[in-house]
Amino acid sequence: MNEKGQGLDVLLTETRRFAPPEHFKEGAVVSDRGLYESASADRLAFWESWAEKLDWFERWHTVLEWDPPHAKWFVGGKLNVSHNCLDRHLNGPRRNKLALIWEGEPGDVREYTYEGLHREVCQFANALKGLGVGKGDRVAIYLPMIPEAAIAMLACTRIGAPHSVVFGGFSPESLADRINDVGAKALITADGGYRRGGIIPLKENADKALESCTTIENVVVVARGADLTAKVDAHMREGRDHWYHELIADASADCAPEVMDAEDLLYILYTSGTTGKPKGVVHTTGGYLTQVAATMQCVFDLREDDIYWCTADVGWVTGHSYIVYGPLANGATVLMYEGGPDWPEKDRFWDLCEKYGVTIFYTAPTAIRAFMKWGEEWPDKHDLSKLRLLGSVGEPINPEAWMWYHRVVGKERCPIVDTWWQTETGAIMITPLPAVTETRPGSATHPFPGISVTLLDDAGAEVEAGFLAITEPWPSMLRTIYGDDERYRETYWSKWDGIYFPGDGAKRDDDGYLWLLGRVDDVLSVAGHRIGTMEVESALVDHPAVVEAAVVGKSHDVKGEVIAAFVTLKGGKDGDDDLVVELKKHVVEKIGAIARPETVIFAADLPKTRSGKIMRRLLKDVAEGKALGDMTTLADPAVVEQLKAQYEAKEG
Ligand code: PRX
Question: Ligand 1 centroid vs 258 CA: distance in angstroms?
Fold first, then answer.
């Protein structure tokens, strides 16, 4: 079950316990178990009470309509997300509160009050309208981590245009696939973005992508490089491309928010699955905002004077829910940073924490493991005394990384919330409540109030170690896969009747704590990014020299997993080092740098069952350097023995 290097035996012997510190409990948003009790007494009334904390133009008539696997939450309710994130904060002291503090990698800083952010969102919303973008039109966003990313998302929600944000590290081809799948009418991008001292040429990538897109009518380009000394040629195309700053300059700051139905589409975000084609996860308006806002408050114990920093990119769901919508719906001050954690030095994150007095810090285990590797001297150079709460998300956090985070970053003073959730769940599902839950390193502890989770086996029987299962619908759940409801049913709802299958394995200890054990399907987690093995295999097979490819994850001490690719060439030929380089490059061109294989092994044959199915399990044993598992179903056992010898020779 657990292939992610976190053995069950280790977890079972993890006896360290961390009670919420006394000082933390004072004035906490959630200070007792009342929330769990009220949610289990009446789950729908519980969620309704959270929906009531938002601003609605019209109240819903029914909390939930559940026609498995389709849910509708707050049926009949009308609201607008940008109104909830901005306008409703303008009538009190939050008007002049900082909504966004942004630092670019080169050190440039911009700050927006709620009033200022509202103004620019309205201007950009009007600019989009001027380009013919209206309610229901899809807008693709391909931006670096700059304020305009949040502004663009909010402007889309203001006019009721669903956005689809594409991570800036994706290749032109990945961008084109997403634009085409969603049928986007407009694209918002930038001339470039800074990363580790270099510039990612986003507009150049976008231009390449648009060669194979027909639906985009207008492209808005943010002048990021032109901000600074580095001039990037954006190759503006007359009639199609428009500078963001020019559009804004002419736009009115008066833009009434579109009245949206609770179930109107809010955004589509693509994520990897077990097939070659990423899935467009569909999130709607009312339920999503309700759960994101509730979890933001309770899990992060968000208080009025917090400075909150989530280090994710807006291109991933964490950025959507916990950089933009959750914090802003709650009137928080959000720190946003553009670049790499080790630029110019390995203490950039700690420098930012000190400089801005960050109080809540939310990052990923892969980052924590990198910090561990770089050494304690980097955080130790900085005053981190303002930090009061730490969070982790994206993959299982190994107890050693948890302890390091606790000791070196949190100075044994800050509770850690290990939050389990997914693109599909939209918001946090399993997590401690920091002033209530006693934590255990490596355990995400318990379901959030109002969330029903169990562990099942294949047959649907309850077990203590098995597949994670979500037994009741929740407000921020995905509604479908864009344009492919059949795939929605098949992927998430076909394993058991009316129960959601997230694709993760988990175990419950004797005290009822949940320990997430990683994916049980062909989805890898490379530096916390979800990558489907099939996507990488399709990219490899796309190369003219390749006939067949199989990809597996190999444990890695910082990235969690890296990609090992086994490739059969045309005519069974052997490849040389140049071809290895070329194949890696080919995958980067097809998908993006996050999918670059670490190792490429040429295999005259791949281990297959008699019915021709590639046995990735054995390839994983080879890549991990483990003894080979059961080979009785193999058509030709010699194939895998030979690969093992080859792999060992190559890895030295
Ligand atoms: O395997 C789980 C892992 O990340 C997957 C979801 O990936 P994605 O949709 O990209 O969203 C990541 C950010 C929410 C899950 O199926 N995962 C996420 N958080 C945790 C986790 N695994 C263990 N512990 C976590 N806290």
Answer: 33
For ligand 1, whether the C-beta of 313 sits within 6 Å is no
Q: Which residues 6+ apart lie within 8 Å of 650 measured at CB?
A: 599, 601
Is the pTM higher than 0.90? The answer reads yes
Q: Ligand 1 centre from 470 Cα, in Å?
A: 15
The answer, yes or no, to whether any atom of ligand 1 lies below 6 A from the CB of 394, is yes
- The β-bridge relationship of strands 307-310 and 333-337 is parallel
Measured CA to CA, the distance from residue 583 to residue 539 in angstroms comes to 9
Cα of 520 from ligand 1 centre, angstroms = 12
DSSP class of 227: G
**Which domains, ranges and CATH numbers included, belong to the chain?**
22-505 (3.40.50.12780), 523-651 (3.30.300.30)
Please tell me if the CB atom of residue 421 comes closer than 6 angstroms to any atom of ligand 1: yes
**Ramachandran assignment for 509, one of left (phi > 0), alpha (psi -120 to 50 degrees), beta (any other):** beta
Residue 496, pLDDT score: 98
List pLDDT tens digits, range 166-202: 999 999 999 999 999 999 999 999 999 999 988 899 9
Is the CB of residue 418 below 6 angstroms from any atom belonging to ligand 1? yes
- Which DSSP symbol is given to 302? -
What lies within 8 Å, CB to CB, of 305 at 6+ separation is: 359
